[in-house]
Design goal:
143 residues; alpha/beta; 56% helix; globular
């Protein structure tokens, strides 16, 4: 199961995205939501999501600042920026903080699913690599 945190100050956008993801991935995902960056940081600390889909323009703390805080706290969490703004500075900032993707609203389902599939495959690979390293470390200690 993948934990997803959806962060957007537009409640209708968040609910629509939640329905789309749940409809496609079903029980493979557990989704929780936040309406601003401050709440997102707190929820990320508590829920430790695998993936964060983050809007940029939000009240209290914007999405880029929240994404940076989450990245520092949870370096293995994948961050996807989802925004209606096609500003080069936003894309540049997203890349510099290590976001795995940048989607413009309105998001096409195919683009969303493609990106989520890629990120989920990376998460699975990381988990498998970690498990393999643990087994090898254990075997090495036994000798």
């Amino acid at each position: 199961m993948y934990k997803l945190l959806l962060v957007d100050d537009e409640a209708m956008e968040t609910e629509a995205l939640k329905r789309i993801i749940t409809g496609h991935y079903g029980s493979k995902t557990e989704i929780f939501t936040a309406s601003n960056g401050k709440t997102a940081i707190a929820m990320a600390e508590e829920g430790r999501p695998d993936i964060v889909l983050m809007d940029i323009e939000m009240p209290v703390i914007n999405g880029l600042d929240a994404a940076q805080a989450i990245r520092q706290m949870l370096p293995r969490t994948r961050i996807l920026i989802v925004t209606a703004y096609e500003r080069f500075q936003y894309a540049q900032a997203a890349i510099s903080l290590g976001a795995e993707g940048y989607l413009l609203k309105p998001i096409g389902n195919a683009d969303l699913f493609h990106l989520l599939d890629e990120v989920m495959a990376e998460i699975d690979k990381d988990k498998n690599d970690t498990a393999r390293r643990t087994v090898l470390d254990h075997l090495a200690q036994e000798q």
